[in-house]
Design goal:
Length: about 210
């Protein structure tokens, strides 16, 4: 998994919004972090942080994770088309020879396309699904039909744009130990990429049991 922060709006956007709501002076050269923390975090006036937006490039995650990510609707997603990922798989050599789980050997080929869980039976089932998927592609079955056979472990990537309020909600839910392990890893990776001067907005959302 790789997470890259592509863009973020300055925290002055939030400071200005709070100043507007509370009829307080606004100084663009002197961000009032204490005021933002008090209003947005302690008083829960979280609409003011919707004016802060982050854009992330998220790569090397499963379709299972993407499905859970999409439940967070106050965000925009641009996902790599399955037509391109399946095109890559069609021309992959050596995949048909994989029969046993082998993290150091044959699994190396499958890991270009699949997220391993560490469970041998589950991962072998994913490899079998990948082999059948490739066989259909090589029979020139249309991609738009073949993609119905893609396992949930199949890798994908996407760009996500999300505002700070929605990101707080995402991090609070997905950093919990009750969340899917992979999306929990994503929540922690996203938090690590957030600019240091913005982290105070989200520190109370990160679960200590993650």
């Amino acid at each position: 998994m790789n997470v890259e922060l592509l863009h973020y709006t300055p925290i002055t956007n939030c400071d200005r919004a709070i100043s507007k709501c509370w009829n307080k002076p606004y100084d663009p050269d002197n961000v009032n972090y204490d005021k933002i923390d008090r209003i947005a975090n302690k008083f829960k006036h979280e609409s003011t942080i919707e004016h802060i937006v982050y854009q992330f490039d998220i790569d090397g995650v499963s379709r299972a994770l993407l499905q859970e990510q999409a439940r967070h609707r106050m965000a925009s997603y641009s996902v790599k088309s399955s037509r391109y990922t399946l095109g890559e798989l069609k021309n992959e050599h050596g995949l048909s020879a994989i029969f046993d789980y082998d993290m150091d050997g044959a699994w190396g080929i499958a890991s270009k396309y699949l997220i391993p869980t560490g469970n041998i039976d589950v991962d072998n089932a994913s490899i079998s699904a990948l082999q059948r998927l490739q066989a259909l592609l090589q029979q020139n079955v249309a991609n738009d039909l073949v993609k119905y056979c893609m396992p949930e472990s199949y890798k994908t990537s996407y760009v996500m744009t999300i505002n700070a309020r929605s990101l707080k909600n995402f991090l609070s839910l997905r950093s919990s130990k009750s969340a899917l392990w992979e999306i929990r890893d994503l929540a922690n990776a996203i938090y690590q990429t957030i600019p240091t001067e913005h982290k105070f907005l989200f520190s109370d959302s990160m679960k200590g049991d993650s």
